[in-house]
Specification:
Number of strands: 29
Largest sheet: 9 strands, mixed
Radius of gyration: 23 Å
CATH topology of the largest domain: Spore Coat Polysaccharide Biosynthesis Protein SpsA, Chain A
CATH architecture of the largest domain: Alpha-Beta Complex
CATH class of the largest domain: Alpha Beta
Helix content: 10-25%
Number of domains: 2
CATH superfamily of the largest domain: Spore Coat Polysaccharide Biosynthesis Protein SpsA, Chain A
Length: 421
């Protein structure tokens, strides 16, 4: 007999792994961990995993933090403090705190759970959903948990369908006709196809569902293995594939779409180019990621700010935004903005222009600045007359220019430039 979906949610918890360095985002993660990086005008990256959990009916959530965690912890405390313990719901922050003995940090993704076994035990749950906190997508986790229960698997792994030519960058799953995983391959040179379509491969999303009793025993054994790296992808999952039953769950079966015909949207915004593009995708006429959906909202901490303001209407001094997203608290004073995304409290001044710009909160753009194809970090003061995005060689002298030609600007970079000039 299949349990009702409401019953499954009430007996499940989400364990969010949010401690990764995110070094490929370069200076954007100098002061914050990747899940705490801003995205989409108001939210942070971690808000997608947390919102998916809440929207799926899961009200017991743990977030394991490690590197540069203050920004993430503060965000969770401010934006995710609506849980009520008297209703048996909560969000716990679990920093690496030497709970296991001599180790100062979590030794791997599995060890992050192992060091908190007593806390998970206290939740009294049947199912544990392991999530990465650093991807952009909408997914009904309840459908995946239901699939796990119905299949009788030891672990169910969320997976993406990707072209074989692109799958070498992922951990991939070889499956049989019932999507039971027969092998788990880490970044193979020749990825396997699927039984129904040899041109595509199933790539792991880093999302796992376990029965807690099974996972608990596995974690204890793994913690005593001196040869283990204590990682789900490297150690636990291959062990289950070899000696147990591992079930693949296709993202297309549980993704939340804007329309039934919309593509299944998932993005790893782990590079400056990917981060820039995913943010600017939201300025499309019909974005693939629906941030306006009230049926599956993305929750976050919302500052109390006034509406955006546009002022001046003169030749070359017109406050206007075209095909752009402009967040609350922004003042667009005599600036032309095109194909850009501005976060909260961005102020721009007369005769400036922004094109294909992702501008994080509390940035000030001085007069006559021209900025094209840029990402600007939080709190940056763009000096008067600065031109970026028109001369790549000049930009590279002072700023971080990505492989895709996106220029990342931070205050430290501008300070060094000012000192040199």
């Amino acid at each position: 007999m299949t349990l009702s979906s409401n019953r499954l949610a009430s007996k499940s918890m989400a364990f969010v792994l949010a401690g990764g360095r995110g070094s490929r985002l370069r200076e954007l993660t100098d002061r914050r961990v990747k899940p705490a990086v801003y995205f989409g005008g108001k939210t942070r990256i971690i808000d997608f995993a947390l919102s998916n959990a809440v929207n799926s009916g899961i009200r017991r959530i743990s977030v394991a933090t490690q590197y540069k965690a203050h920004s993430l912890i503060r965000h969770c405390q401010r934006g995710w403090n609506f849980f009520r313990a008297e209703r048996n719901e909560f969000l716990d922050i679990l920093p690496a705190s030497q709970r296991g003995g001599d180790e100062a940090w979590y030794r791997g993704t599995a060890d992050a759970v192992t060091q908190n076994i007593d806390i998970v035990d206290s939740y009294d749950v049947d199912y544990v959903l392991i999530l990465a906190g650093d991807h952009i997508y909408k997914m009904d986790y309840e459908l995946m948990i239901q699939h796990h229960v119905d299949s009788g698997a030891d672990v169910t792994i969320g997976c993406l369908t990707v072209p074989r030519a692109e799958a070498s960058a992922f951990g991939v799953l070889d499956v049989d006709k019932d999507d039971v995983i027969t092998s788990f391959l880490e970044k193979p040179a020749d990825p396997p196809g699927t039984p129904d379509d040899p041109s595509v491969t199933l790539a792991s999303m880093g999302i796992y569902v376990f029965n807690w009793k099974f996972l608990r025993d596995l974690l204890v054994r793994d913690s005593e293995d001196p040869n283990s790296s204590h990682d789900f992808g490297n150690d636990l999952i291959p062990e289950i594939v070899k000696n147990g039953k591992a079930q693949a769950h296709r993202f297309t079966d549980s993704c939340v779409r804007a329309t039934p015909q919309a593509p299944a949207y998932w993005r790893d915004v782990g590079t400056v180019d990917a981060f820039w593009k995913a943010n600017l995708d939201l300025t499309d006429f019909t974005p693939e990621l629906d941030m306006w959906d009230t049926e599956w909202p993305i929750w976050t901490y919302s500052e109390s700010v006034p509406p955006a303001k546009f002022i001046h209407n003169e030749a070359n001094r017109r406050g206007v935004a075209i095909s752009s997203l402009v967040s609350g608290g922004c003042i667009i004073s005599g600036t032309e903005i095109r194909n850009s995304l501005l976060f909260t409290q961005v102020h721009t001044n007369s005769y400036a222009s922004l094109d294909q710009a992702v501008v994080l909160p509390y940035v000030n753009v001085a007069r006559s600045a021209r900025l094209t194809k840029v990402v600007i970090d939080r709190g940056v003061h763009i000096p008067e007359g600065l031109i970026v995005g028109e001369d790549p060689d000049e930009d590279k002298k002072w700023f971080r220019v990505s492989e895709g030609g996106v220029t990342l600007i931070t205050q430290n970079m501008l300070n060094k430039r000012a000192a040199a000039l």
